[in-house]
Design a protein that fits this description.
Elements: E1 2-6, H1 15-25, E2 28-35, H2 41-48, E3 55-61, H3 63-66, H4 71-83, E4 91-97, H5 104-124, E5 128-133, H6 136-146, E6 150-152, H7 159-167, E7 171-175, H8 182-190, E8 196-199, H9 218-229, H10 233-248
Parallel strand pairs: 1-2, 2-3, 4-5, 5-6, 6-7, 7-8
Helix pairs in contact: 4-5, 9-10
Length: 252
């Protein structure tokens, strides 16, 4: 299995143990190294670098940080991305989150910074990993405007929008929250498996109450998709792996 989206750097006290167990159970993890508050991309990069090859990194700027409009930090992250372009597989996660951005000023900050990194993705010829919450249509329209290949991770938005996203060749992440988030199950039902990848967004979105999510819990997504699609787990695993490898151009 491949976990298409996780944040292993957030396990700061036991990341080595998490990676060790994950290596026994998974083929790879795509880690979204994202600037967010005190989780600076350069610190996360140094923490995870010894495990690259199994951990396959992306670099981005989270919309909940972007709402603050700190362009000095944006420039630092951009420079870091430029200096590591050949070592990453996408720019992200980036996007829009209007659930947390309440004021028009915060939303404008998000939009401007989102577009800035979309422009960078075009320049560097990299795909993007999208975080969109309560702004799915707008995020999708900006992706289309810039003509980038996109992965909408942990999608919980409107079904009509996600159908359009998939029809235009982008992929959608089905997260371990499929066991308790009705919107995720609905997305999984209406889309063909060829448009889906399996992710945990760990340490968030745990399928088990009282337990932090783990990358190998991606098995839960495989199991639930198998039930919903009435397709054997082995086939679900094979297709979602291929979708992940193809999207990110992973050397696996």
């Amino acid at each position: 299995m491949i976990d298409a989206h996780a944040h292993v750097e957030f396990y700061k006290k036991n990341h080595e143990e998490i990676i060790r167990v994950a290596q026994e159970r998974l083929r790879a993890i795509v880690d979204s190294i994202t600037e967010y508050r005190k989780n600076h991309v350069w610190k996360s990069w140094d923490l995870l670098k010894p495990y690259f090859g199994f951990l396959l990194p992306t670099l981005g700027y989270h919309p909940n940080e972007a709402r603050r409009g700190n362009w000095e930090k944006v420039r630092r992250v951009e420079e870091f991305i430029r200096s590591h372009t050949k070592e990453i597989y996408a720019i992200g996660e980036i996007g829009l989150d209007y659930f947390h951005a309440k004021t028009e000023k915060e939303r404008e900050n998000q939009r401007r910074i989102f577009e800035h990194f979309l422009e960078l993705a075009v320049e560097l010829d990299l795909p993007v990993v999208i975080h969109a919450r309560d702004a799915e249509r707008e995020a999708y329209e900006l992706v289309q405007k810039y003509g980038v290949k996109a992965y909408f991770h942990s999608y919980t938005g409107p079904v009509d929008v996600v159908k359009e996203i998939a029809e235009n060749g982008h992929i959608i992440g089905i997260v371990t929250g499929i066991v308790f988030i009705p919107e995720v199950r609905e997305v999984a039902k209406v889309l063909d498996i060829e448009s889906l990848v399996a992710e945990t967004d760990s340490p968030y979105m745990s399928p088990y109450r009282g337990d932090r999510n783990k990358p190998w819990y991606v098995r839960v997504v495989i199991e639930e998709l198998s039930k919903l699609k009435e397709i054997p787990e082995s086939e679900i695993e094979k297709i979602t792996e291929k979708n992940t490898i193809d999207f990110f151009s992973l050397p696996l």
